[in-house]
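Entry:
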Amino acid sequence: MDDLVHQAMAKWPNVPDCYGWLGLDARGDWYMRDDQAQALGSFTQSKGSRLAHEKLIAFIGRNYESDKQGHWFFQNGPQRVYVELEATPWVWRLQPDGSIQSHTGSIARMQRCIVDEHGRLYLDTEQGFGLVHTQDVLQAADLIESGLWVPQEVPASELPKRFGYVRSPQQANGLK
């Protein structure tokens, strides 16, 4: 987490949490969800506006974490902005050399490979659980066919509980 964020948290310790305003889609893109986007429904129904500002995206990525309940958030100075997840807290990109990089740019090591009943491919890493980006599924299929990755089958409905994440902190807290 950025030093400026730690300083802001110490200076203003009682800033209320924010829910519903930020989303992460299944391709690793961040979305700002204003009042109008939220009024149209959940994140899967109305994403909002995709963020494109590189420095803002990098700032969010450096300050992206989860709490003990598995709610993922962006620590925006003193305010915790909880993230609505379309799929998982991480979106993994496979690099040409076979390494794994998160949507925030950090390198991870796979611990296990998961496939759900819809054929979606996930990786569990030391950083956490995430979906393999759709553009990288062909490369991942080559790793599976070569025997380097051996996917375990897990129903999609069991993934959040098994891997300790909450897709909608807003809904989990009974907020609209």
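Helices lie at 3-11, 35-39, 54-62, 137-145, 159-163, 169-172.
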